[in-house]
Amino acid sequence: MSADLVLVSGTSGFLGTAVTLAYLEKGYRVRGTVRSQEKADKWAKKHEGKFDKSKLEWAIVKDVAAPGAFDEAIKGVTILAHTASPFHYDVKDNEKDLLIPALEGTRHALRAAQKEPSVKRVVVTSSFAAVMDFNRLSPETTFTHEDWNPATYDEAKKSDNPTFVYCASKKVAEEEAWKIAREPETKWKLSTVCPPLIFGPPLQVIESLDSLNTSSGAVWGVVDAKEVPETSFPVGTDSRDIANLHVLATTTDEGADKRFLAIAFHFDNSQVVDVARKAFPELDGRLPKAEPSEGKPHFKTDSSLVDRTFGGFKWISFEDSTKDTLAEILRVEKALKQ
Ligand code: NAP
């Protein structure tokens, strides 16, 4: 049992839920940020009984992009896990919808941590989006934790491609995090985790499948599709592994000062269909016809820093992660119909 208090930003989100649960399961006290008390109450109700209630408290942060957003929430915190950042492609204004909340949210969270003497460790949820380079997506390329997306804020501001803008938002946010971490007045150590498309059971409060988070929606997207949907990012990892990496990154000496590319598997949506067909007879008639294939030739990745740092990290497999993702969404679908 640890006396550490962990501030998790974005507890209401898909990954924020997994990260919050992971720290609670390991015995840490958690202060979760949400945009409203109503969201906090619904989340607590959904997860009642999974952990000691007294270990979880809330801070309301309506907008991570507002100056001083984290100044109250950070008080007394030893570990900050900053996950809150928009991940969607429904972009009307590149800056307001993606770039500003990603960049300013990270800046405000880490500046607040810089002023709070109790903070010892910080982890920022970055992304493979901050690693990859649209001009190098070829089978000759192996992306590692040393690679950086070359996109700039100004390019992203003008782009009409929402995927490019999202990827740039993650790059500029992570770059800012490392800049703040290297300032002499910063007393804590930073780690960043760069996940690909995150699979795994969506355990956040889901009021309609139309509002499913982007990555769970991408996996669920094979259901009721006429054809196998194009595989946008052919690399994935389970949310429980990403959450555990946040915990390891902030609670071990070895995890400090590192950037972890965290890719467990490469996949194609035809393989998602195949797993779905074999595991869920009830989906018969709701899946497109597909022969499992390797998909289009694409890049390679090297996430071995995770294994080297944490001694043979055990990744959840593509098959198990896909099954658990679909099982949870099927359960939610049934519950929403009742
Ligand atoms: P999500 O379910 O949409 O969660 C996003 C979270 O951020 C929510 O809690 C959301 O609050 C909060 N948030 C967004 N903008 C905010 C703002 N302006 N002010 C306050 N809170 C705000 O998405 P997710 O997939 O879990 O993503 C979480 C993190 O993981 C993000 O940093 C994302 O870039 C990163 N990531 C995700 C994936 C993936 O495949 N899922 C892959 C790589 C990296 P509300 O719920 O109230 O809107």
UniProtKB/TrEMBL annotation:
Molecular functions per Gene Ontology: oxidoreductase activity, acting on the CH-OH group of donors, NAD or NADP as acceptor
Keyword tags: Oxidoreductase
SUPFAM superfamilies in the cross-refs: NAD(P)-binding Rossmann-fold domains
Oxidoreductase recorded as keyword: yes
Domain 3-beta hydroxysteroid dehydrogenase/isomerase: 7-250
GO annotation (BP), single: steroid biosynthetic process
Superkingdom assignment: Eukaryota
Residues that span the membrane, as ranges: none
InterPro entries xrefs: 3Beta_OHSteriod_DH/Estase, NAD(P)-bd_dom_sf, NAD(P)_dehydrat-like
Gene3D superfamilies recorded: NAD(P)-binding Rossmann-like Domain
Family the UniProt entry places it in: Belongs to the NAD(P)-dependent epimerase/dehydratase family. Dihydroflavonol-4-reductase subfamily.
Name used for this protein in its record: Putative oxidoreductase
